[in-house]
Design a protein that fits this description.
Blueprint (H helix, E strand, L loop, with lengths): L1 H9 L17 H5 L13 H4 L11 E6 L2 E9 L5 E3 L4 E2 L2 E7 L6 E16 L12 E18 L2 E23 L5 E22 L5 E7 L2 E13 L13 E8 L2 E8 L5 E10 L6 E6 L9 E4 L5 E11 L4 E10 L17 E12 L3 E18 L6 E18 L1
Antiparallel strand pairs: 1-5, 1-21, 2-3, 2-4, 2-21, 5-6, 6-7, 7-8, 8-9, 9-10, 9-11, 10-13, 11-12, 12-15, 13-14, 14-17, 15-16, 17-18, 18-19, 19-20, 20-21
């Protein structure tokens, strides 16, 4: 009985929204400049980065981009020379924006569809941690209608309502073996939604520097009626009631940011951003199963996350009126305390560098390319619930492309 109760603590999707799943791939120009954009008014991606800057855009925009994400992680179990690697799968965070307003108006309307959270990893069903995780496919898509108003030539504000549409597909092994040698499996799939808001202020100073301040609220995402599917030996089927569903609520954290734009010349733009992410709202993960059994009870797993911060810097240099080069980098602290690191998000403090280029075709069409490399510090951990113990090493590679039409 105790073993089955522990099993279902493990079946909770342990760290679905860790810092490692805050991808923030919300605009190609901004990625190329180290993810800076709070204090800049560059293009339609300001809908996400700073709604207050949207009214300062000199043109209207329709644009979109995609950033295929290659997540490479290795796990070396404690006391072993065996190293396990996640399988090669590609997540596809995307962004799309539209911004419109009359040329002489002091306001603009916008809408953004972007993916600030998500993850895709597959460790397979033969590695040491298969009872903690086999695979995870997670998507959180934000849809944000926005309005921005220019209050003066030097000051604008803006805000938008956020609707989040999320989906999750998580698979884990169950430590039960049938007469034919097949290992049990649990699969939790579901869709959910949540609501929030994003607001910002944008200021042009007398010394030529621009400043942005933004706040994106916490988005509480609720999954109701998700499918809980169990493949177990027939003799234990009664302990795993089916069909079965689950419900859960997961907070996507609030984020407060400040950014600065500097313009040493007409060709060079420099940017610096800093933000704090309110992960301390993630105290525990609770799951409510529609049908319980003596060995299948609702779960409550503590997480005790801490707030995380990041510092980012970037630059853009216009080689010609049509061609621009970009570069940047930053540091992000982990939100996951010792004892709570899992294969869903083998998170650690991370450093990253980015680069990019942009080219204008005529006067209305932009093509932007970006690339990001992230390195997560090596981290030895023993999970307090699963007791999975070992060292994670992770690198992330993210190319990207975007197209923007403006008028």
């Amino acid at each position: 009985m105790k073993k089955l109760l522990l099993l279902f603590m493990w079946l909770s999707p342990a760290v679905i929204y860790a810092q490692g799943f805050q991808v923030n791939l919300n605009g190609q120009k901004q990625i190329g400049m180290g993810h800076t954009g709070i204090g800049l008014a560059q293009d339609g991606a300001s809908v996400s980065f700073n709604p207050g800057a949207v009214a300062m855009l000199p043109e209207n925009y329709i644009q979109g981009g995609i950033s295929p994400l290659f997540f490479k992680s290795a796990f070396n179990a404690a006391g072993s020379n065996v190293v396990n690697y996640n399988k090669d799968k590609v997540a596809t965070p995307f962004n799309a924006y539209a911004v419109w307003g009359p040329k002489a108006a002091a306001w603009k309307l916008g809408i953004g569809v972007y993916t600030p959270f998500g993850g895709l990893t597959d460790w397979g069903n033969t590695w040491q941690g298969k009872y903690v995780l086999e695979s995870l496919d997670l998507k959180a898509i934000f849809i944000q209608p926005t309005i921005s108003v220019k209050l003066a030539d030097y000051l604008s504000i803006g805000g938008g309502f956020i609707y989040n549409r999320a989906s999750v597909d998580l698979q884990r092994g169950i430590p039960l073996i049938s007469a034919t040698g097949e290992v049990g499996k649990a699969q939790l799939t579901g869709n959910g939604h949540g609501y929030g808001w994003n607001a910002g202020i944008y200021v042009k100073t007398e010394v030529g520097m621009t400043v942005g301040i933004t706040y994106r609220s916490q988005v509480n995402t609720n999954i109701k009626g998700g499918d809980a599917i169990f493949s177990v030996p027939g003799s234990l089927a009664a302990s795993f009631p089916q069909p079965n569903t689950f419900s859960a609520g997961i907070p996507l954290p609030a984020q407060a940011s400040i950014g600065f734009g500097f313009y040493p010349s007409s060709k060079l733009t420099l940017a610096l951003d800093a933000n704090v992410v309110g992960w301390d709202s993630y105290k525990a993960l609770a799951f409510d199963y529609a049908t319980n059994a003596p060995s299948l009870q609702d779960t409550y797993s503590p997480r005790n996350y801490k707030n995380a911060f990041s510092v980012r810097g970037g630059a853009q240099y216009k080689v010609t009126d049509k061609f621009a080069l970009r570069a940047g980098g930053g540091y992000t602290s982990t939100a996951v305390p010792d004892g709570y690191v899992t294969p869903e998000a083998p998170d650690a403090n991370r450093y990253y560098v980015t680069g990019g280029l942009g080219y204008k075709f005529g006067s209305r069409l932009d093509i932007d390319l970006s690339f990001e490399y992230e390195h997560l510090g090596s981290r030895f951990q023993t999970n307090v619930e699963s007791n999975l113990s070992g060292t994670f090493k992770t690198n992330v590679y993210i190319p990207g492309i975007g197209i923007a039409y403006h008028w």
